[in-house]
Amino acid sequence: MNNLVSELEVTERGVYNEVISLLAHIADQDKNRIALRIASIAKTKLQNRVAIYYILEGVLQQDTGGLEMRLVNKIISLASEQMRETREATNEVKVAASNTLVTLASCYFDDVMYELHCHLKPPKLPEEFILVTLGNLSSAYALDCIPFVEMTLSTMFSMLELVNDSRMRQAFCGVLEQWSRAVRLFLASWEKYPFPKVGELRLCNHFLPVYSHVTSNWLTCEELELKQAVIKALGPMMSLLLHKEEYQGQIFEQMSWLLEQYKESTDVFHVTKSLSQLLEVSGEYKIPLPKRKFQAICSALHNQLCSQAKPLSMENHTELVYCIVQLARSSPDDLIAFLHSQLEIENEAVCVASLNLLRAIVSADCK
Fold first, then answer.
1. How far apart are CA 30 and CA 116, in angstroms?
2. What pLDDT, on a 0 to 100 scale, did the predictor assign at position 199?
């Protein structure tokens, strides 16, 4: 075994030790100077850039509000450059750089968003991690994203025709999923926030073009990871569009595609999760489901609970029961009638599942 230490390893250890030393005295020194030195180290091509980025992220988490704008811009530029690197930066480095931008956005959101939009220019497709970071920003700072919804979605829509690669489609779906969730959160509590009161339907309208493209072109994909990404994006988008009466027929029809996915070899939890979001909106806003669609959803959910073909995950079981409870809240008589019809079937698994659901409904105090 070779015990010799290479020159590169010596260099890396020295730099890493310098960073640790800087952190040890962070309370006694100028935070700007420390962050600037760490950012400079991260720009090198050392193999431990990932560790350096995580250290930089830790510094930023302590107090980003007092950093000089010169330093903020340097860090944003550095992280953006490295997460867009196509030749030398590893995936780990890109993830670390993306996370650093998300952390910095806690105090410099507009600056980070501006940088991302600088690289979201059609007809050229953005690098994958521009989209990943956009999605993560929305997840971390949902309400801060609201003023950027129209600009972001209209720009993305203009690029969709060019997106043929599976990984890029997944990245686009990730943004659509997270930004849909952000808008839904805003609509649920917008009276608490000092944003201009953008019309509810106007916000929802921004999602229709991208939703239509995805459902018209991407539903037939065979790649499992892409199909999962599409399913995860559909639920939040469909629940937004359900607010508008003229879109409801289209959304109800698309529910059939979601239900069909229970027959595929996909992770069915995401199918159930998407359905639960739709049922929440249907119940909360008193949007009745068509009779046949209601029955189809009941049957699909009940079959999942009764099926012995493969064991249910705990999270999927919980979500399935939650869906049934939502159906009971929106149309209690129809749901109880359905469960009574299942109790008449001479099958122990079906009867046990139906009785357990009745108990769950009573426990949830559905009336």
1. 29
2. 62
Model confidence over 249-306: pLDDT tens digits?
Answer: 999 999 999 999 998 866 899 999 999 999 999 988 889 999 999 999 999 999 999 9
Task: Grade residue 307 by pLDDT with cuts at 50, 70 and 90.
Answer: confident
pLDDT digits (tens, 9 = 90+) for 211-234: 999 999 999 998 999 999 999 999
Distance separating alpha carbons of residues 241 and 247, to the nearest angstrom: 6
Core vs surface per residue 210-229: b (16+ CB within 10 A) or e: bbebbbeebeeeeeeebbbb
Determine how many CB atoms are found less than 10 A away from the CB of residue 146.
Answer: 22
Cα(190)–Cα(20) distance, integer angstroms: 44
pTM: 0.84
| Whole-angstrom distance, CA of residue 13 vs CA of residue 194 | 49
Alpha-carbon span 350 to 358, nearest angstrom? 12
The residues, ordered by sequence, that sit 6+ positions from 219 with a Cβ below 8 Å of its Cβ are 230, 257
Query: In this structure, what are the phi and psi dihedrals at residue 170, rounded to the nearest 5 degrees?
Result: -60, -40
Q: What distance in Å separates the CA atoms of residue 46 and residue 156, rounded to the nearest whole number?
A: 35
C-alpha to C-alpha distances, 204 to 146, 251, 272, nearest whole angstrom: 12, 13, 22
DSSP letters for 162-191: G--SHHHHHHHHHHHHHHHHHHHHHHHHGG
What's the pLDDT score for residue 208?
Answer: 94
Question: What is the model's pLDDT at position 10?
Answer: 36
d(CA 67, CA 31): 8
Q: So what's the pLDDT on residue 304?
A: 93
> CA–CA separation, 248 vs 203, rounded Å?
16
Cβ contact 329:362 at 8 Å? no
User: What is the rounded CA–CA span in Å between residue 330 and residue 283?
Assistant: 5
- Going by pLDDT thresholds of 50, 70 and 90, the confidence category of residue 69 is confident
